[in-house]
Amino acid sequence: MNAMDFELSEEQALLRKTVRGFAEKELLPHSREWDEKQAFPREVFSKLGGLGLAGCCWPEEYGGSGLSTLDWAIVMEELARADAGVALSLAAHHSLCSAHVHLAGTEEQKRRFLPPLARGEKVGCWGLTEPGSGSDAGGMRTTGVRDGEHWVLNGSKNFITNGGTADTAVVMAVTDRAAGKKGISAFVVERGTPGFRAGKKEDKLGVRSSDTSELVLEDCRLPAANLIGREGMGFVDTLKILDKGRVGIAAFSVGIAQASLEASMRYAQERKQFGHPIADFQAIQFKVAEMATKTEAARLLTWRAAAMADAGRSHTAESAMAKLFASEAAVEIALEAIQVHGGYGYLKDYPVERYLRDAKIGTIGEGTSEVQRLVIARQLLHLRPVVR
User: Fold this and answer.
1) Which of the residues are catalytic?
2) Nearby residues of 54 by Cβ (< 8 Å), 6 or more positions away
């Protein structure tokens, strides 16, 4: 992307066209069915892997495509425009699980775990949140105790995207309670490991094609080689992962906003009242203008944060701003889309009610809007961190 004219490069424009074509063919026709059945389309991950999107940002030696953070934002927007649940599942797989291995793993760990994830052969999840600790990771109860050449994990995680379907999980556990947040470590736990299982599957408001489940660890015994990163550095690494992860969730929100805008424009030009398309009425025109402006503003904030990440610049505040604005804008835009559709917007025959349900998770996942405001304020005012 050129910093002055904000145009995508030819390669990025082609990427957008390719992903949009895939999403409209493979996702859009099934999105209502997946939503109603709360069905996770596992086969889609294989197809995403075949396109090089399941390992979008990882180097080719680890099975990835070597694309940029901005490229990733383009991918997320186009997938969420068609099916937000699939986009969210890919975000957890790529920007959380795989990202943790790529950031903190040894060379051996990267070569062992990343290629099957990048090829879409395995699905990944990331376990941070617990029943009693969401934004307050310091309240984590899951423990990891060293036992010779093994670690033994006990505890549970909840609200885990891909939790019930994942083959590979990165799980955080307290390994030194006295050290507080610097006593949290990260571990790779693979499906089939004794003592590790999926628990309750959540019945959610939105993004219902994305599996969200509990993870349970009961005397789960892992080789010492499954520790990812240095002992006690799991939470520190988590903060770095969330900075980039928020770019993906911002792009996810932009995709829902774009879908809501497009649906509203189509409907306004087709629906007639008083002998005219409702697009002729200023009340509708103003709604569409406001929706388009917010969508574009969210997109540009997201692209800026992505470009800063690609340039190697600190982008904590910018990523939080992008996620905060884009996620809240997506909810507002989806709500307006229902209003444009009138009574039909309240029916499942039209997609805008799903867009509203899907959009809301963006204001909660990977840090609530309230937490984003804290992050932004701390960065601007150099305040001492309290929660993140």
Assistant:
1) 366
2) 45, 48, 90, 93, 94, 117, 118, 119, 120
